Structure formats: C-alpha cells, structure tokens
Amino acid sequence: MAVYDENILKNPFYLAFEKQRPDLCRRVADFHGIVLVPCCESLNVSSYLDSHFDSYVLRPVEEGYKTVCGKVFRIQDRQVILGSGFPTPSVVSILFEETFYNDQEQSYSILCISRPLEIELSPIEVNPPPTYSLRSLEDVREFLGRRSHKLDRFIQNFRQAFKEQERKGLRHHITSTQVWCFSKQMLICSFFQIYIHHGIHDLIFNLVGALEASQDASFNKITRSFQELQQKDLGVKPNFSINLSRAKRELSQLNQHTSPLLKVQCLRRVILIATQTPRPSIEAVGADDLLSVVLYLLLKTEIPNWMANLSYMRNFCFSNSSKDELSYCLSTFEAAVEYINLGKLQKTGSKLPFWLNLSNWKS
Question: Which Gene Ontology cellular component terms are annotated (predicted)?
Fold first, then answer.
C-alpha cells in the first residue's frame, strides 16, 4: 500500500460510522468484510444520514464485492472500481489498509480511500493518489504513460531558455520556474511537478549547489567537530533509539531524489520512521523530542550539501499549501540546521532552548 498515513480512529467519517451504525460494525465483522473510509482531507461534511454508510460496507461475493444496499465493487491495483449501482463507473484510489478487531476478536478490514464515493471527478482528478503516496519517479512515469512525451517537449524548451539566462541570480530562476510551471498548468498535479523537476534537476540543483557551496562547507566543518556526540548528549529519548538506524538509511537516500517534492517526502518518511509508534503521527511527538532526533540524524548521516538541499526544497517545491505536514517536516530540518549553525551545540551535550519550539518555525 501507499505511504499515506492518518489515524483512522480520529477520522470523522469512521467515528460517525461507529456511533450511528453499530449494527453494521457487527455485521462487517461477522462476514470479515471491508469498510471504506474516505481520508480526512477529502471530507467536506460533518454529519451523515444513517443510510449513507450502507454504500461503504463491502461483503465478498464471487464477482468481487457487494454493499448491503446492492452496489457492486471490484478491488484491483490499489483501486476501488465502482460498478453497478453508481451513476457512472469510476475508480477511487486506496491509500492504505488496516485490520481492525471487535470485542469478540473478529476481524474486518479498513480501506482508507482518497475521496468519498459520491463525488464525481474528471479522470485526471480521480486517478492520482494524494501527494504522500508518491514514492519515486517510477511511480510518476507509470501514471503519466504517453502524456510524458508532451512534458518532455516542455522540458526541452525550458532547458534552452535556462541556458540563455543561466548567469542570472537564484531569485530570477525561482520566479521563472514557477511562472513557467503555472503557464503550463502543472502545479495542479504533483505527478507533473515531479516529472518536470526531474527533467531540469541538473540545471537548477547545480545552480543552487554552486550558490550554497560556501555555506555547505562551513556547515560540514561544524558537524565534523561534533561527531563524538551520542544520542544521550543530544537528549534523544531511549524509546527512539531502536529506529534511528533505519531513519539514517532512509535519509541517506536524499540526494537520489531529483524532485524537491520527493525530497521533502523523504524527510517526512525519516521522521515517521525515527519516531515510529503503533499509529504514526508526527503531531503526536513533542517539539523538543523531534528536534533532538533530527539533530542526531543531521550529525550522523553523511549529506554533504544540506544547504543546497534545503534551499532547493524551500524555493522550488510549489506546494498548494505552506502549512501542511510536509512544510512542517521541512521546517523541522531547517530549525535543526540553524541551531547547529548558530553554535548552540556543546561538546559536553546540549539543551534545546525554549525559542526553538517547533511552533515558532512552522511556515
């Protein structure tokens, strides 16, 4: 399944389902069925009719699945395919699956889906899963298919225009890249953004790397002087220790990602791995605890160009929202880098000051 995460037990749709239809909760466990739960971000109503949930409980049948109200579904390739009983055939992406148990230890499955079943969308809006489910350029290429040829022509035009003005400063290229993407209407789709950034990565990232080279050299000199610091010196709690090796391996892949969006998603996965709990939630981790973990990872993972990476992510990731979880993760790493740059680390250990609380660093 995809890497999108949310706590189903806090999902308003699922909470309403449990409260309003305990009969369906019992029945779905009796036949080991499936409950479809639209992800939190897709919900736009706060109350539901009792009958509304009939379309979201699936029972296995020979030809696929049927709801208690007779609608037909198929599940294939991480998608729910809506069949007879719906106004028009369409598909809804599956974000992740969880297994739940009732008081009698009977199991049933929860499929978190990208949107409510009643919303009718155009094909390009129906197919792509949310941002967090994109793990690699290969995912993007698989989705785009033949559409990538048209994007390739756009990329070649941009590369030519860039070479003609490559001596201009970073601000010019940030603006021109953003304007160019807007003119091609690419910002509305993460798939397009990732594919385009891959095509121009060598131009943009090399420029950013050259501009940030002296800052990177200075930062690397500082981090090398603190290599002897251990987890306890940085205030990392013992319950996080078990996951830090995996988090370091994930973080070491940062420079293999060519898109700023995929780079920020890499940071998010690093934080989720490092602070792993039975139900992952970045917001559940204390700000000081999170900063301690990120400081340790910055010192112990060999990334030679942190300044270039942070500048690339911040300036060229054209997200629709600056206050989402991805931005929060990026701000966390920026805060930790600034903390190191300001010389706040001590060789005998460090105590995080109050002003570094992450609430002050959210964009």
Answer: early endosome; late endosome; neuron projection; plasma membrane; transport vesicle; tubular endosome
